[in-house]
Sequence to fold (222 residues):
Amino acid sequence: MQFSGEELTFKRIFNYLFGLFLITLGVAFSIKSDLGSAPVSSIPYAMNLIWAIEIGVATFVFHAILVGIELILLRRNFKPKHFLQVFVGVIFGAFTSFSVSLMTFIPEANSFALAFVMIILSIFFIALGLFFYVPTNIIPLSVEGVTQAFAIVFNQPFAKTKVFLDVSIVLTALTLSWVFLGNFGSVGIGTILGALFIGTTVKYIHKIYGHFTGRDVDMKKM
Fold:
C-alpha cells in the first residue's frame, strides 16, 4: 500500500506512532514540572484560561488555524492529506492523556532541581519524537506541518525553523495571557526553554544519527 508515494510499511507506521507518543511523553513531563506548558500546547492552554474554551476544542481551533497558514504558504504544493492534520490531534490527545496518567508514578517536583530535570526530559523526548515521526511523511501534527512549510518556502533547515516557530508560538501565548489575564498564564520558564532548545536538540540528534549510521534524514519531506 502506497501513501505519499512511499510504501506504507510496519516500520514507517511504528516510527510515526512511536514518535507521536514520545512527544506526548515530553508534554506530560512539562506539565508535571509545573514550570509551564510545552510550546506546542501554550496557545490552546492560554485560550482555555482566557475564554474558558475546553482544551480539546482550543487545540482543534489552533491546529485548524495552522493548517490555514500552511495552505497560504504552500499554495499549489498544499496536498489534500494536509487537511487531516487537524484530526491527527485526536490521536495526539489520546496519547497525551495516557502519558499524563503515567506521570502519577513519578514523584512530585517538590524542588526546582527536580522540576528542571523534568523540563530537560521534556525537551529531549519531544525532540526525539520529532526525529522519529516527521520523516515518515505520513500526516504531521499541524505545528510540524507549518514548520515544514516555512522551512520549504524560505529554504531553511527544519531545526532552525522549529526554534523560530516555537518562539513565535510562545510569544503569542505570552501576549494573549498578559493582555487578557495580566499575568504569564500558560507560559513559564519551562515553556521558554522548550521553545529555545527543542529545535536545537533535534539538530544534534540528527547529527549523532548521521555520525553513527552515515545516513541523512529528510525533515522537510511532505
Observations:
- The chain is about 70% helix and 0% strand.
